Amino acid sequence: MFDTLLLLFGPWLGFRLLGLLGVARFATWRVSGAHALAAMLVCTGTAHFMPDSVTVMPSHADMTAMVPPFVPFPDLMVYATGVLELLGALGLVRTATRPVAGIGLVVLFVVMFPANVYAAIEDVPLNGDPATPLWFRIPEQLVFIAVALWCARSDGRADQEESSRSSSLAAR
C-alpha cells in the first residue's frame, strides 16, 4: 500500500541529500521533488507495458483490470496513460518543460482517478496484492497532485541558475 509513496519520498530525500552534498542539480527541495516524481512515474508508467510474467510490479493486465467498464478500449487507454506518465517524467526533469509537465500530470492524475476508485470498490488486485483502499488512495492521489502542482511552480532564481548551468554544459 505504501509502495508508491516510497517510490516518491525515497528518491526525493536521496536527491535532496545529493544536493546538500554539492550536486548543484538538486540544490532545492522543489527540483529534487520534480526529479523524484519523475522517478516514481518512470516506475508506474513502465508498469503499463509489463507482461504478466514480470512479478516485481503490476502488469499491463493488472492495469487493464482497473479500467472502469464505461471507458472504451481499456488496453489502449492503459498504453496511452503509460506513455503520458513517461512523457510527464521526461518533462519534469527539464526546467523549461517542468511547468507544463506538472500541470499536465495534475490533469492526468485527475483523469485516472476513476480507475483507482473502481479498483478499490471492485477489489481489483495489483500484482497479487489487494487493491489500495479508498481511505488511503484518495489522500495519496492528493499528495501526487500537490507535488506535481508544487513542482510546476517556478523556483525563480534557482530555476534560472539551473537553466544557465544546463546551457553552459550544452555549450561545452
Short description:
With 172 residues, the chain is mainly α. The chain has 7 helices and no strands.
Protein described:
The chain is an all-alpha fold and 172 residues long. It has one domain. The chain is built from seven helices and no strands. It is globular. The protein starts with a helix and ends with a helix.
Q: Structural class, judged by helices and strands?
A: mainly alpha
- Beta-strand segment tally: 0
Report the uncertain regions: none
> Percent of residues in beta strands?
under 5%
Tally the helices: 7
Shape: globular
Termini separation:
45 Å
Percent helix range: over 70%
| Average residue-wise pLDDT | 90
How would a textbook summarize the main sheet?
none
Count of structural domains? 1
Radius of gyration, in Å, reads 17 Å
The H/E string reads HHHHHHH
Task: Outline the fold blueprint.
Layout: H1 3-20, H2 29-47, H3 60-66, H4 74-93, H5 98-121, H6 134-152, H7 157-171
Tags for this model:
single chain, 172 residues, 7 helices, 71% helix, 0% strand, globular
